[in-house]
Specification:
There is one protein chain. By secondary structure, this protein is mainly α. It has 7 helices and 4 strands. The protein is globular.
Length: 154
């Protein structure tokens, strides 16, 4: 390899998140155990290129929940640079999602439907939550949690 190829070659490593496709699909989401936390979208880990670097692999876990394509570029860069405050914010968001998923599963086990669970959550839990969510989006998310739960029993 010439010195110019070496200097200008960004990466030849296949992205382990999207497996080189540049897009995270439902199979990737299941493989990385991020159901209910990610949706199919361009891969934020490799920025849709399908390639990554050794440095990225050493700094950022492939399955970091917070690194998604819908974040502002400045936030993505902070994650990729290992900014402790940003990584902590990401951990808090994952804990929030874990808590919300568990809450919904518990309420669903008590035979509550998505709208009732959403209303109860908004009355009792949302004021303590670190992240806010609008009722309609919450109902849709709750329905996804319920559908995933139902599919586990099929």
């Amino acid at each position: 390899m010439s010195i110019l190829n070496f200097l200008f070659k960004k990466s030849d490593l296949e992205c382990p998140r999207c497996l080189g496709k540049g897009f995270v699909d439902r199979d990737d989401i299941r493989r990385l155990k991020k159901q209910l936390k990610w949706v199919p979208a361009p891969c934020a880990y490799c920025n849709g290129s399908g390639k990554t670097t050794k440095e990225m692999l050493s700094k950022v876990p492939v399955d970091i929940t917070y690194l998604t394509i819908d974040l502002p570029e400045s936030e993505i860069e902070k994650i990729k640079n290992g900014d402790k405050e940003t990584l902590e914010k990401g951990k808090q968001k994952e804990l929030f999602l874990d808590h919300l998923i568990k809450y919904v599963q518990d309420q669903y086990a008590n035979n509550m439907d998505a709208e009732t669970i959403a209303d109860l959550y908004l009355r009792t839990e949302s004021e303590n939550a670190l992240f806010s969510i609008e009722r309609e989006n919450l109902i849709q998310y709750i329905q996804e949690i319920i559908e995933l739960k139902k599919s586990e029993f099929k």
